[in-house]
Amino acid sequence: MRETGHPVDVVVGQNIRLIRKARGLTQENLAAGLGVTFQQLQKYEKAANRVSCSMLIRICEQLGAHPMDLLPPVSSTAHALIDLPWYRDAQIVHIAQPRLLPELRRLSRSQLHTLLMAARAFA
């Protein structure tokens, strides 16, 4: 067994875990839906085992996610975004509430600013 997985496998595993938790599922719940043990799912999440394409699709079906939600960005310029805290926060919001970000785009700059100030006040 490898000590560290390939960077793509690591990102896929992290994203499975992120989306699973955002959906309120335990490893046991998701594993049961996939027909695998929770230990196998744990290995996917830790990138100890690679996720096959067919398993990736099954995981997406169980999570109600798109395969692109699990895969890392292809563009080298997009990789820099992953390290920014706001990007990960936006990804979590998108996964938990997929309709929220498109709705926020419809707001004016001043409406967004007001919303941000309110969020900070109640945080």
From TrEMBL:
Pfam families: HTH_3. Residues 16-71 form the HTH cro/C1-type domain. It comes from the Bacteria. This is Helix-turn-helix transcriptional regulator. It comes from Asticcacaulis currens. The lineage of its organism: Bacteria, Pseudomonadati, Pseudomonadota, Alphaproteobacteria, Caulobacterales.
